[in-house]
Amino acid sequence: MRILIFLIFVISHPIFAQKTEVLPLDSISLKAEKFIGVDKYSNLYATSGAVLYKINAEKTLQFSDIQLGAITSVDIINPLRITLFYQDFNTAVILDNTLNEITRVDFNKLEEYRNVSLARTANDRQLWVFNIDLQQLELFNYRTNTVKTVSPPIKNRIVTVATNFNYCWLATPDFILQYNSYGSLVSKFKNVGLNALIENNENLLGLSAEDLFYKKKDSENFTPLNIATNDVKQFYWTGEILYLYRRENLTTYQLKLPKT
Questions:
Q1: Residue range 238-250, pLDDT digits in tens
Q2: Residues with Cβ within 8 Å of residue 59, at least 6 apart in sequence
Q3: What does the alpha-carbon distance between residue 69 and residue 108 come to, in Å, rounded to a whole number?
């Protein structure tokens, strides 16, 4: 299955809404099952079935492993070490910036078997993983195949997750729990119905069924943003740039957030 990309640049006027300034920048026609995000080198990532695409103005790269099937998640926080997770096969694959495989972790074949529901990039050749059997967050070092427990058992189901190199935010139906790589619970705050979450410099954006919410670092409160989110399938946020993917169309905004 191939991905079709058409760049359509749209000149729009600024929209000012309450405390948030939103400047529409451009629109990209994108036919894919899932939009992943855009890295710091302006490469766009998307998946269709078992294929990961990396797209820029010059070329399109792709990676797939038919034996592992559909890709569950892709973490591009480090575009030199991209983490792919295949939940159906309990396996993570690490790619370089040309989408060549560096290593893979088959959690089924570890000396201590682990059944995991997520695998995201952490610091120092480690992965954030959630151990389904023990219901706890762990750090897995794929150089040494060693594990460090980060959280006590979490009784409620995990709705969504956001991570960076040093922190992991686990969202349950009622609360969002932030852990650091030393195993400390840094913060706990109410979930306002979010089913998707993304981190940017320790600030959070969350998407509910109806709204997009912003939480500033060190705050416990989410503030709704006056941006239309109907039919949004995926979103991504980096710097002051927000990407909303809906109906095979990726819209880009400059997002200047409220100070309080």
A1: 989 999 999 899 9
A2: none
A3: 16
